[in-house]
Design brief:
By secondary structure, this protein is of the alpha/beta class. It has two domains: 175 residues, Aspartate Aminotransferase, domain 1 (Alpha-Beta Complex); 251 residues, Aspartate Aminotransferase, domain 2. 39% of the residues lie in helices and 13% in strands. It is built from 16 helices and 14 strands. The strands form four sheets. It has a seven-stranded mixed beta sheet, with helices on both faces. Strands 9-12-11 form a three-stranded antiparallel beta sheet. It is globular and about 60 Å long. The relative contact order is 0.17.
């Protein structure tokens, strides 16, 4: 795999430093073996998340200087509205401060207590907000996703056979919402085809169930569709996006991903005046007045610009090309990962690399911690540690996947950084059998992986 040159020039740099091994050991112990508790100054390469960690462009920074900080009716709000109408074809957009805020505002208007909410796979914050709204999250990902070694073009798809069966058995009144996550982060950043989106929409229509998109990585998903779905090989990214969003009633978005901003989110409503009013009603107490939605005027300017920059085809070719290069090098080194690579990350298969560590001692977390100890790299567990406990029984749930996610920030790291990551993982692989698991010593009731304390199991 040949590395694709960056489609940009670097104008500003931020120094990073490597701590010594004893210093990293001390930092990890002080962090109670939770990488979220490590200071960023103590991280050499930070792959914890691609959310809000990208480098904004000169156009975005220039736009921020022009930000209108009026409390009501700021220019940036109307620029965001215009961008959403043009790119997504939606009549209404509500800015919020990030993706989970969009879920907090939208979900109570769509979910009744006790209803099931079906997704191709809920991400952690989405799952939490479904539960906070009284819903019961259920994942119906394509069976192809469970075989990490098998190449399939759209492993993020909804299992439409299981979806139809579930709705037929339970009845539409028991299902509050269908959420299609694009790309499917928890399944390895895997894309969803328009064929599958259409099929899911057809089922939703037959049973009268609302369907929305979790659209944080909508542009990367559109790129995969263009490359892998024959119907769209000659379509523009914009046309693919319009067709994707035509098949949903609304969307939530963390704009901190494909819109390449450090803070921001969106709720989009296609054609439902009643839902628009419900969204506005909850935005005011939760996020602030509707024309700023928890954001500064300068952030609205950067968001409106970033929505266009994030769908540029040269950028998307490079963005996915970075992941493909990293995946190719990992494959050469014999390090297992979800194949093919995702659009924003490479998901290491910790279950395959560390088969001796059981799910309840968190193999993905063990690999995540070892990456920091060995090379100062901060990654993230996407496995049983993140999944948490059964809300009914309190018992540890076993995740379908035990992934250690290497999320690559946008426009931040170069080829040399990716090569270093592979070198570190190669050293870890050579002694993988010596790694042990971890147990939780303290955890909060919701979204525990952000703050839980752990200790090594000797």
């Amino acid at each position: 795999m040949r590395y694709i040159p960056e489609p940009y020039r670097i104008k500003m740099v931020e120094p990073i430093r490597m701590l010594t091994r004893p210093e990293r050991e001390k930092r990890l112990e002080e962090a109670r073996y939770n990488v979220f508790n490590i200071r960023s100054d103590d991280v050499y390469i930070d792959l914890l998340t691609d959310s809000g960690t990208g480098a904004m462009s000169d156009r975005q920074w220039a736009g921020m200087l022009m930000g209108d900080e009026a409390y009501a009716g700021a220019r940036g709000y109307f620029k965001v509205q215009d961008a959403v109408k043009e790119i997504f074809g939606y009549a209404f957009a509500q800015p919020v401060h990030q993706g989970r805020a969009a879920e907090q505002v939208l979900f109570p208007s769509l979910i009744k207590p006790g209803q099931v909410v079906i997704s191709n796979t809920h991400f952690d914050t989405t799952r939490a907000h479904v539960e906070l709204a009284g819903g019961r999250p259920m994942d119906l990902v394509s069976p192809e996703a469970t075989d990490t070694l098998h190449f399939a073009p759209f492993k993020g798809n909804m299992d439409v056979v299981a979806l139809e069966q579930l709705l037929a058995e339970k009845g539409a009144e028991s299902v509050g919402l269908i959420i299609m996550t694009i790309t499917n982060n928890s399944a390895g950043g895997q894309p969803v085809s328009i064929e599958n989106i259409r099929a899911t929409r057809a089922i939703a229509d037959r049973y009268g169930v609302t369907m929305i998109l979790d659209a944080a990585r909508f542009a990367e998903n559109a790129w995969f569709i263009k490359q892998r779905e024959p119907e769209f090989k000659d379509s523009s990214i914009r046309d693919i996006i319009l067709e994707t969003f035509r098949n949903a009633d609304a969307f939530t978005m963390s704009a901190k991903k494909d819109a390449i901003v450090n803070m921001g989110g969106l709720i989009g409503v296609r054609d439902n005046p009643s839902l628009v009013e419900k969204v506005k009603k909850l935005t005011v107490p939760y996020e602030g007045f509707i024309t700023y939605g928890g954001l500064a005027g300068r952030d609205l300017e950067a968001l409106a610009i970033g929505l266009y920059e994030g769908i540029e085809e040269n950028w998307l070719k490079f963005r996915v090309g970075q992941m493909e290069y990293l995946g190719a090098r990992l494959q050469e080194a014999g390090i297992p990962f979800q194949s093919p690579v995702g659009g924003h990350a490479v998901f290491l298969d910790a279950k395959a690399l560390l088969p001796h560590i059981p799910y309840n001692l968190f193999p993905a977390q063990a690999l995540t911690l070892e990456l920091y100890l060995e090379g100062g790299i901060r990654a993230c567990d996407i496995g049983s540690f993140m999944l948490g406990n059964d809300p009914a029984t309190g018992k540890q749930l076993e995740s379908t996947f035990e992934f250690c996610r290497l999320a690559i920030p946008r426009r931040v790291y170069t080829q040399a950084h990716l090569d270093y990551i592979v070198d570190v993982l190669t050293d870890i692989k050579a002694r993988a059998g010596t790694l042990g698991g971890y147990r939780i010593t303290w955890e909060p009731p919701v979204l525990r992986h952000f703050t839980a304390h752990l200790e090594p199991v000797c």
